[in-house]
Amino acid sequence: MELHLDGSVLARWGPFHLNSTLLMTWMVMLVLTLLAWAGTRRLSVDSPSRLQGALEALVGVLRQQVREVLACDPDPYLPFLGGLFLFISTSALLTLVPGFHAPTASLSTTGALAVCVLVAVPVYGIARQGLWGYLRGYFRPNPLMFPFHVLGEATRTLSLAVRLFGNMASSAMIVGLLLSLAPLLFPVVMQIFELLLGQVQAYIFAILATVYVASGLRAHEGRPT
Length: 225
Prior knowledge:
Layout: E1 9-13, E2 16-19, H1 20-40, H2 50-70, H3 78-93, H4 107-129, H5 131-135, H6 146-181, H7 187-218
Antiparallel strand pairs: 1-2
């Protein structure tokens, strides 16, 4: 089993190269794009297709979750936060396809997702409170707290990346080990276990990202989160 997808180089073009992580990421993006296109190309209020109904139900659940955490209109934040969940969730589901490895088992992918969260938090905070209204939260209760606030932002981003990478990579390793020891006994059970764990990790990552966005929207206003 190849656990280090970044080291699996499939093609090179001068200084650029295509590794397994990029290929698997593009496959997830393609699947999500095709599902969105198929579910919305014939929208209907009276007789929606099963795919449209499933997508509407999923969006409804995501909106409710985001609304409960942010305690405000979820629509401005749903594309980003819902996109995080769908990417991680779909990555886990596609492991059912032979030869597919979840890109979230690569630290470069989980790091990129965490950096997106790191950037999104101040962007949403500034959009709501203005530049100074957001930045002055870093100097509360006194200016000496500024480096600690910045350090806190950085460390929680690192924890997001490492948590997702560790859980996804370790689950793949455990499943692979058990399948090699007892290939006739564990395959179905372990595959279901890996799928469930992937969905749990997608939910946890998305919820933590939502909590961090909520902190950027409210904590800097001096109100408790």
